[in-house]
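Bug #77: duplicate submission created two jobs. Keeping one. Sequence:
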Amino acid sequence: MATLTLPRKRERSAHFWRDTARGYLFILPVVLGLLIWTFGPMIASAYYSLTNYRIISEPEFVGLQNYIDLFTRDRLFAHSLNVTIRYAIMFVVIGQVFSLAVAVLLTQNVRGLPIFRTLFYLPIVVPYVASALLWRYLFNREFGPINAVLNSVGITGPNWLGSPDWALFSLVIISVWGGAVSTIIYVAGLQNIPEELHEAAKIDGATAVQRFRFVTIPMLTPTIFFNVVTGVIGAFQFFVPAFIMTQGGPARATYFYNLNLYDKAFKWLEMGYASAMAWVLFAIIIVLTLFIFRSSPLWVYYEGEVKS
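Kept job's structure:
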C-alpha cells in the first residue's frame, strides 16, 4: 500500500530573523522617503484640491468646486494647457528626430568618436538654471551671438524671446539642445541592432536609406516608444526655462501650465485650487501615457514577436 509523504517543512536558519531585520533596516530609508516625501504630499494635495485653502486660513471643504471652476471659469487654464500641448508636440517630434539623427552620427566608425559623444553629453551636465541664463544671452536681440551670426550672413535675426511668434519655439530649441539622454538611449538602441540584418539587406540590394527605413527603424521602435513616453511626460512638466527666461511672456505666449499652477499656488496663495490643477495635470499625463501604450502594438516591433 502506497503511503503519502508530506514535504518536510523548510527549517529556518539560526540567523533568519537577524538577516530579515537587517534587510528591512536597509530599505527603511527608501520606504520612509516615499511615504513622507511622495505619497504623503500626494494624499494631502488630493484633500486640499477639494478645499478652499489659502495657507493663512483653515481649509474649507468645497467638494469638486475647484475642478468645476477650472473647466468653466478659468480662461488661463485653457490657455496655459494649449501652450503646453503645442510645446509638447513640437518638442517630442523635433526632439526625437534630432536625437535620432545625432545618435546615428555618434554610431559611425570615425576617429575621435568618444570625444564627440562627450561633447554631445555636456548639455545635461550644465545645471538647468545656468543653461537657461546662458540661452537668454544667446537669444538676446541686440547683442546675442545667434543674431550676430545671422546678421553676418545677411539675415535679420528675430526677436527670439520678445516675439509671441518666436518665444515658444525658442524654448523648444533649448529643450532639444538638452536632449542628451534621448540621444544616449538611441545610441544604445542602434548598437543593439544585429549587424547581420543590415548585411542581409545590403546583399539583397537595399540602399542605405532603405536599410534605415526597413531595418533600423523597425528594430528601433521599442527605443522610440520609450523616448516618446518619457518625452511626453517631461514636456507636460516643463517649467524652469520659461520661469527664468520669459515669465510666461510675451503676451502669455509661453505661459505654460506649470507656470499657471505656480502663480496660483505661490503668488495668489490658492493652494486648494493649485492642488486641483496638479491632479488635472496628473490625469492628463496618465491618459496620454495609456494612449501611447495602447497604440504601441500597431507600430512597436519586439524582437522574437510574430505579428499576424
